[in-house]
Specification:
two-stranded antiparallel ribbon; 10 helices; eight-stranded parallel sheet; 342 residues; single chain; 14% strand; Arginase, Chain A
C-alpha cells in the first residue's frame, strides 16, 4: 500500500489552542504526522511518495471560493492589522446577528469563516492545508489508476471543515475533496466512512442532499462531545440525499466490543449501496489514552478495524483525521493498514 505525504504539511505548527476555558498547548501538532510516517517506514507498509500539486479547482468543487481566498490571504491581512501571533476567532454571526452583511475587518472575517475558537491560524496554515488536500487528491488518483488501497497521510485533518468554514483543527475537507474528485473523474457512487471519535460534521453537510456520496459515521454521542450540534441518529439526509447519511452515536466509554456492532451495520450499508470506492476518514482518537477523547480502544483493536474494512472488498483510500496520543499514533495507524492488508 502506497503512502502519500508532503513535508509541507508540517509547516502548520500551532503553539496553543483554547480548551476548557484556557490556553493550552496545541494537540494537533506536526509530530502527529512524523510519528505516523516513522511507523510506516519502520514496518515497511509500502512505498512513500510525494503528492502531486493540483490546481485549486478540485477545492472549489467543495469549498466556497471566497472562503478559499480568505485562507490564502489570511496571514497578509492579519499582519497588516498589526498582529503577529497565531489567530483565534472570538465572535460569530449567530441567530439574531446578520450573517449576510459584508465585513472587512479581519476579526469579523475570522468569525464568518469559523465554527469554533479552538482552531488557530498561523503564517503557514494555508500552504500546509493545500498540501494536505494534494495528499488526499493524489491518494484518490492512485485509486483511479487501479490501486486497490492507498494511505493519504493528511495533516492538518479535514472532516470538520465545511463549505465555507474551518474548525476542529480542520481547514479543507480532504475526504470530501477526494470523493468529489473521484466523482468528477468517472465514478458514479462513492462512500465515505468516518471512524473518528468526533463526528465529521463538515463532510456530512457537504453531501447531505446528494445520493451519489454515501456518508456513514461512527462517533461519540454529540450530546456529550464536540461538535455537539450535528451527528445524531435522526440525521439521514434530505431531498435527493434522503437515506444516504447514517450516524451511529455511541456513549462515552465505548470499547471495541460495543463498537463492533455499529461497524458491522455500517459495513452492511456499504454492501447495500455498492459504491465503486470507499474513503475512510481514519481518526485514531478512539484509543483509550487519547487526551481529548473518551472511547476505550486498545492498540490491537485497530488491527480488527482494518480487518473488518478489508472484508468489504472495495478500492479504499485511508485519510488521516484525528488522533492525539502522539507517541502511539503511528503504531495504531499502521495497525489499521496492516489489518486491512492482511
Amino acid at each position: 500500500m502506497k503512502t502519500v505525504f508532503s513535508d509541507t504539511q508540517l509547516a502548520h505548527a500551532p503553539a496553543q489552542e483554547i480548551s476548557d476555558g484556557e490556553l493550552k498547548p496545541a494537540v494537533e501538532i506536526p509530530s502527529r504526522a512524523e510519528f505516523v510516517l516513522k511507523a510506516v517506514r519502520d514496518r515497511n507498509v509500502g512505498d512513500i511518495i510525494a503528492p502531486e500539486e493540483f490546481p485549486v479547482r478540485p477545492i472549489h468543487r467543495v469549498h466556497a471560493p471566497d472562503y478559499v481566498s480568505f485562507l490564502e490571504n489570511f496571514w497578509d491581512s492579519w499582519t497588516t492589522a498589526g498582529r503577529s501571533k497565531e489567530a483565534f476567532p472570538f465572535v460569530w454571526p449567530i441567530r439574531s446577528l446578520r450573517p449576510d452583511v459584508e465585513v472587512s475587518h479581519i476579526d469579523g472575517l475570522l468569525g464568518r469563516y469559523s465554527m469554533d475558537a479552538g482552531t488557530p491560524l498561523g503564517e503557514h496554515t494555508y500552504k500546509a492545508a493545500r498540501a494536505s488536500v494534494d495528499t488526499a487528491l493524489t491518494g484518490a488518483k492512485l485509486l483511479q489508476g487501479g490501486e486497490q488501497a492507498a494511505f493519504a497521510l493528511c495533516r492538518p485533518p479535514g472532516h470538520h471543515a465545511g463549505f465555507d468554514f474551518f474548525g476542529g483543527y480542520c481547514f479543507f475537507n480532504n475526504a470530501a475533496v477526494a470523493a468529489q474528485y473521484l466523482r468528477d473523474n468517472g465514478l458514479n457512487r462513492v462512500a465515505i466512512l468516518d471512524v473518528d471519535y468526533h463526528h465529521g460534521n463538515g463532510t456530512q453537510a457537504l453531501f447531505y442532499d446528494r445520493p451519489d456520496v454515501l456518508f456513514l459515521s461512527i462517533h461519540a454521542d454529540p450530546k456529550d462531545e464536540y461538535p455537539y450540534f450535528l451527528g445524531y441518529a435522526d440525521e439521514t439526509g434530505e431531498h435527493a440525499g434522503t437515506g444516504f447519511t447514517r450516524n451511529w452515536a455511541l456513549p462515552p466509554g465505548t470499547d471495541w466490543e460495543s463498537y463492533a456492532p455499529a461497524l458491522q451495520e455500517a459495513c452492511r450499508w456499504l454492501q447495500v449501496y455498492k459504491p465503486e470506492a470507499l474513503i475512510v476518514s481514519l481518526g485514531l482518537d478512539c484509543y483509550e489514552h487519547d487526551p481529548i477523547s473518551g472511547f476505550k480502544f486498545k492498540s490491537d483493536d485497530f488491527f480488527r478495524l482494518g480487518e473488518r474494512l478489508a472484508k468489504v472488498g472495495l478500492p479504499t483510500l485511508f485519510l488521516l483525521e484525528g488522533g492525539y496520543a502522539v507517541d502511539v499514533l503511528g503504531e495504531n495507524c499502521v495497525n489499521v493498514l496492516e489489518g486491512f492488508a492482511g
